[in-house]
Amino acid sequence: MPLPDGPRISKFMQRLQWIFNPFKLMETSAEVYGDYFTVYPTSNQPMVFFSNPQAIQQIFTSSLEQLDARTSNQVLQPLLGENSLILVNGLIHQRQRRLLTPSFHGDRMKAYGEIIANVTSQVISSWQVGKPFSVRDSMQEISLKVILRAVFGLGEGERFRQLQELLPSLLDLTGSPLRATVAFFPALQVDLGAWSPWGIFLRQRQQVDELLYAEIQERRDHPDSSRSDILSLMMSARDENGEPMTDVELRDELMTLLVAGHETTASALTWALYWIHRLPQVREKLLAELDNFGDNANLSEISRLPYLTAVCQETLRIYPILPIAIPRVVKSPITIMGYEFEPGTWLTPAIYLVHHRPDLYPEPKQFKPERFLERQYSQYEYLPFGGGNRTCIGMAFAMFEMKIVLATVLSQFQLALADNHLVKPTRRGITLAPSGGKWLVATNQRQKAKMPVEV
User: Fold this and answer.
1) Domain map of the chain by residue range?
2) Dihedral over Cα of 37, 42, 437, 286: its sign
3) What share of the chain is helix, strand, coil (3-state, %, to 5)?
4) What is the secondary structure of 131-156 as a DSSP string?
5) What is the pTM of this model?
6) Which of 80, 99, 109, 289 has the largest count of CB atoms under 10 Å?
7) CB 419 within 8 A of CB 105
8) Superfamily for 11-445?
9) Helices 280-292 and 306-318, packing angle to 10 deg
């Protein structure tokens, strides 16, 4: 059976549009072809995009014998490594996920609340009243310091300093649509020397790898059972055969957590601060909730505030950081929405399109946190972290961090958009992030400047 119809433009042009304007490619295709269509976003491999919640439920709940996850290795493998939780499949993925899950258990996650609040206060203390600043830079500094402390237990020292400097630089190599083309076109991945784009990437990656392996070796040489950071937990974890993770596996998972754990959260926080200050009614309602909660509240209670939660949910709805979930490849014939798909077909839940369905989200282009107070959405209607057995392992941590950072920032500064700046989504590697610039300004420090730190 042939694949469903899709855009008539060439595969090459589809890939370019996916890099430079993916939302337009998805929206125009959905307007013409409806709830499912075939596109070629990253290679010559066709993908069938779905935006129907019932279809997505079937994809997320199918067994590994019928559907298994697949990612486009050419995009992520050079950065994350072939053992990354994002890239492995089947039984290997199940093993890696079991080893990593305890690190993100709810009780353990809450212990990071004080780190998040303190790091945020430290970073924003450099903001000067009346001087516009780059929100992205500040949020990236916060999220990177948080993840370095949570993952490595590092808060200072030369290795901490080098990682803090190298990781943003490495990610910035694909930090614009034009620079991101090197990730989507393997032919451009050629080392032409220390000043070529791919040559710079390879050399910076080597520097990061040396730091990661040095940290792993130091932990092996000097084990410390009192440490509770994620790396220590990963090193002590054993699979069902009693086997630990190898150094290479640890490196790849560390890189995955460092990249996925700070780049995406920084983008989400930047979007949140944009919408909060673009819409005065949202800002005032959120400030009222935070101010009325009282000085004796702890961080866990603050993270459960309904309107703050709704603001974070709506931020991830309107411009999800990842526009699609991890594709699934058909292993045995499956019928979805009356269409039979043969083995080898790639089926892809289109997160952005689901989040912009008017039947689920009336006026989908409008930022309305209230929609999450008025209605409960299923995991197939709202899926910013993917779904099924590939749901982002750091989902709870990311949401918790977003809430604590926003509450800390808003408790300490009055902020405003500079010149009513318009921020738009732009590609950063495989993610979609807010456009840059110094578009936020502190207008005053707030009287309620103390955030509770007990969890």
Assistant:
1) 11-445
2) positive
3) 55, 10, 35
4) --B-HHHHHHHHHHHHHHHHHH--SS
5) 0.90
6) 80
7) no
8) Cytochrome P450 (1.10.630.10)
9) 150
